[in-house]
Amino acid sequence: MCGILRINTMAATQYNKYIWLVDMIRSAGKITKAEIDQRWWHANLNESHEPHIPERTFFRCLREIEMLFDIEIKCQRSPDGGLYYIADSDSNSQTKQWLLSQFAMSQSIDTSRELKEQILYEPIPAGTEFLTTIVEAMREKKMLQVAHLRFDSQEAPHEFLLAPLCLKVFKQRWYVLGLVEEMDDKHDTPKDEPRIYALDRVQEVKRTEKKFKQPKKFSPKAYFSGYYGVFCGKQYTPEIIQARVVPIAAKFLRSLPLHHSQKEVEPCVFEWFVAPTLDFVQQLRTYGSELEILQPHSLREQFKAELEKQLALYQ
What we know:
By secondary structure, the protein is an alpha+beta fold. It has helices spanning about 1-30, 35-40, 55-70, 95-110, 130-140, 220-225, 245-255, 280-285, 295-315, and strands spanning about 70-75, 85, 140-150, 160-170, 175-180, 195-200, 200-210, 240-245, 265, 270-275, 290-295. It folds into 3 domains: about 1-120, Arc Repressor Mutant, subunit A (Orthogonal Bundle), CATH 1.10.10; about 130-215, SH3 type barrels; about 225-315, no CATH class.
């Protein structure tokens, strides 16, 4: 047991070194081997106080990083001997950036434990323990056996087979989107229409040996393009939504758009082509009196009725 623990600890240490190296090169943009060695000399991970990373070790790390993370680190020739940088080689670069930022933050905090009281987090619901199983099932095209309990249900968890198509994060929650093969009659959703489930409501996930076929031309990015959040499906239709906001709220919207379709059609008037789902409507509500719905008329009337109802509570 001690031998296994020692091996696992060594593997974790090496893994953290890979993350450190990738994050350091990513943040630098381009960097020489001499500069890498200088930063390694001062790194908390360098417990043996190595003055530099040996050449053979360095190039072995680059090969391992490419194999583990599918991240290629290239060298651009220069008078200083070469500038190392991360090659942006495919459309998954945004996913890689997000994953690496999470790994890097975790590693940075772990090596700076004296600052743990100065770094505050938002609570994350349960469900992350199922991520590895779901990712493996997506990679191997294997069905999952899922036990899911809805918030409004007092019954036993609903069990079904799920062909996982993608994972999505929304407001600190992980969701899995997939095609359901029903094991009981609790839902009547067509098998060719994906359903989405919050992992914090999942009681159990098991990978099966039953294979599934990835739907042709299915793109998670395209599927969610007309929605904000996780409410999605054929029952929701994207449409043009316009709202006027006060100048300070406009600055927030410009710095962090609510949706990729967002446009500022005139000063402080924003437009989106998105389905008016509960997620999107609730997000607009957070602006309170700083936002006025201009169109569609039905949504404007909905906001007006809700405001009148709220006002009645205080009279």
